[in-house]
């Protein structure tokens, strides 16, 4: 190459620094220069986080949707609206209004009104009443009729949802928070809770692996010495009313579960296979560790669960 001047050396060093930075962070696509997200869920969370951080009216350059890039095979955010996109919801026959009303001493109830496809679906979880309407105002009037039929003293608070791009985007808005970057792993939205669990284990002398893909289901935490696996499941899979996250409104959550029911049964079979092989499987909902008031108590409960299994394995060995 010959002798280089100090100016040439600094230029080469700057070029190498830029190349190292590009190789280190795969967030930027070389094809179009936009921020690249490896999975669709990462793009949804990033879109939701930008919508949360945005204040005031939207501008023409604000991100409104995401798309799959044919060059880098990743997902990018864009401000252009989508044209002729596929419908994410299948049209179904209009069901009759289902009600299972019981006499309850309630002061107020929450009513979910969701715009899915061409229908407005209203749901009253406390009364297990839901149905479809042609417009938002018609759904509100029907709910008011039901409330008058039950009890005039009960007040209803309405919550409205619309299908922006996919029903999973509702969940992405819940888990996005103030995240400015996402990863392709599950840790992109569960890492804060999992970091707390791992910190409790490490401070108490337990050593573990995280996201070990050698085992079915890719457990979040693996303790090989004691043959313990820890899974933290998404709140999308349960219908518990005491869950504070409320990731999806009722009808959208029901549709999401029907669409992904095969994944759920596959996950159950994989964990049963691990139990048959002699592993101790601990499963928790992600909302268990989200409450700030009860977090310390529940982390201690999690640590006690691991300690009891570790002591039993030590006695058996």
Write the SSE topology:
Layout: H1 6-24, H2 40-53, E1 65-68, E2 75-78, E3 108-116, E4 119-124, E5 129-133, H3 136-150, E6 155-162, H4 168-176, H5 187-203, E7 209-210, E8 221-223, E9 228-233, H6 250-259, H7 261-276, E10 280-285, H8 295-316
Parallel strand pairs: 3-6, 9-10
Antiparallel strand pairs: 1-2, 3-4, 4-5, 7-8, 8-9
Helix pairs in contact: 2-4, 5-8
Could you explain how this protein is built, in words?
There is one protein chain. The chain is of the alpha+beta class. About 40% of the residues lie in helices and about 15% in strands. It contains eight helices and ten strands. A four-stranded mixed sheet has the order 5-4-3-6, sandwiched between helices. Strands 7-8-9-10 form a four-stranded mixed sheet, with helices on both faces. The protein starts with 5 loop residues before the first helix and ends with a helix. The model is unreliable at about 85-95 and about 175-185 (pLDDT under 50).
């Amino acid at each position: 190459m010959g002798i280089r001047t100090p100016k040439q050396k600094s230029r080469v060093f700057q070029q190498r620094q830029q190349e190292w930075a590009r190789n280190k962070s795969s967030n930027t696509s070389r094809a179009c220069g936009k921020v690249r997200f490896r999975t669709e869920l990462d793009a949804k969370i990033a879109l939701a986080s930008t919508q949360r951080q945005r204040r005031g009216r939207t501008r023409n350059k604000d991100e409104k949707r995401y798309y799959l890039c044919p060059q880098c095979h990743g997902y990018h955010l864009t401000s252009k609206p989508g044209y002729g996109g596929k419908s994410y919801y299948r049209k179904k026959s209009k069901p009759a209004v289902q009600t299972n009303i019981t006499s309850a001493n309630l002061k107020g109830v929450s009513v979910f009104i969701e715009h899915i496809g061409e229908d407005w679906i209203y749901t009253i979880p406390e009364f297990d009443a839901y149905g479809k309407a042609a417009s938002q105002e018609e759904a509100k009037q029907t709910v008011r009729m039901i409330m008058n039929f039950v009890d005039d003293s009960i007040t209803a608070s309405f919550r409205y949802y619309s299908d922006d791009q996919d029903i999973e985007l509702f969940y992405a808005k819940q888990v996005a928070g103030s995240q400015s970057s996402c990863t392709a792993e599950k840790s992109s939205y569960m890492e804060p809770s999992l970091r707390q669990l791992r910190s409790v284990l490490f401070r108490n002398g337990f050593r573990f692996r995280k996201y070990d893909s050698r085992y079915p289901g890719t457990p979040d935490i693996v303790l090989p010495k004691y043959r313990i696996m820890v899974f933290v499941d998404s709140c999308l899979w349960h219908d518990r009313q005491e869950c504070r996250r409320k990731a999806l409104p009722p009808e959208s959550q029901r549709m999401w579960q029907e669409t992904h029911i095969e994944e759920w049964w596959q996950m159950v079979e994989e964990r049963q296979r691990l139990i048959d092989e002699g592993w101790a499987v601990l499963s928790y909902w992600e909302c268990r560790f989200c409450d700030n008031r009860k977090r310390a108590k529940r982390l201690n409960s999690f640590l006690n669960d691991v300690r009891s299994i570790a002591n039993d394995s030590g006695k058996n060995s």
